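<given_protein>
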Amino acid sequence: MSSVDAPDRRSTDPWSGIVGQARALEALRRAAARPVHAYLLVGPHGSGVEEGARAFGAALVEAAGDPRVARGRHPDVVEFRPSANEYSVERDVRGGVLPEIHAAPIEGPRKCVVLLEAERLNDPSANALLKSIEEPPPRTVVIVVTDSADALPITIRSRCQRIDFGALSDDLVVEALLADGVAEAAARLAAALAGGRLDRARALAGPLAPLRLAFADVPARVTGYGATALDLAAGLGAALDDAVAALEAAQTRDLEESDAEAERLGYTARTAQAIRRRLVEAQKRALRRARTEALLEGIAAIESVYRDALAPDAPPRNLDRAPVQVGAREAGRALDVCATTRRSFTFNPTEGLLLEHLLLHLPPVAPA
């Protein structure tokens, strides 16, 4: 996950919230003392690899105690994600990444440019970046972050120093959640559902808990009637609205704080406008991504219920509920419908219609 995430607990020490990655963090700390031009950070989603990139960036620009880095607002640690399914040469690379790589630092001794989800670089966008990654300006460091190094062109990989993050065990995830103050039952439930992703577990134990409950309740409430499907879809839409409401409010505060900081620090009008424009665009993308991720998390909650029904002898993922009363064949069909809905959303993101279609095709529960 991560756009709809738990509150940031790492504002004063950017390294402190990253668990189970001692070797990778030690390598990054050593690298910060004598950095080279480009780094490749590789690790599964939720392993702490993105947080590691931000902590490394904060060390490079000498802003280790600055909460703006963790929130993506520091002018010298600039993050990029693809604006669509892949990085666009014109919009993302030439219109964003390259100008930042070649811009001078604003506050610190260096500029750090972070490319998140770099596995979505296609050949044209990678080629457009190649020279600037190989020979950036002396005061710029490029950090490339991916969950799949093999998906990156060899030309990019060969020009970066690589540091690997490993997957997290459920026990490590539970331990981290307990340290966050999450109750043990909620921590074990979130870890069972999160598949080794600490960011996802934190969200499921916190801001996404109501969303997960709303979607996980669906399999037991399906009747096969259209009216029921419409009522359920309306409730799920409201749950999605609630899931992103906190992010919308936080974005409004961030924009106000960013404007105030630019004025307080005496930025030129041109620099302040550029920072504001970049933040607004990043917030729009983040909100779209958060809504999408919340919907996909909801579908995953439905799938987890049917998986528990399909394998009643295996350890359940939904530790807080009994398996739904459907047969193995119906549970398998329900999983197929969920998978089809997820694929359809990639190409046709009409949220309401897709939810209604999903709910109309889930199996009704057996009468008590």
About this structure: The two ends are 37 Å apart (CA to CA). The CA atoms of residues 189 and 318 lie 7 Å apart. The chain has 14 helices and five strands. The domain at 22-167 is CATH 3.40.50.300 (Rossmann fold).
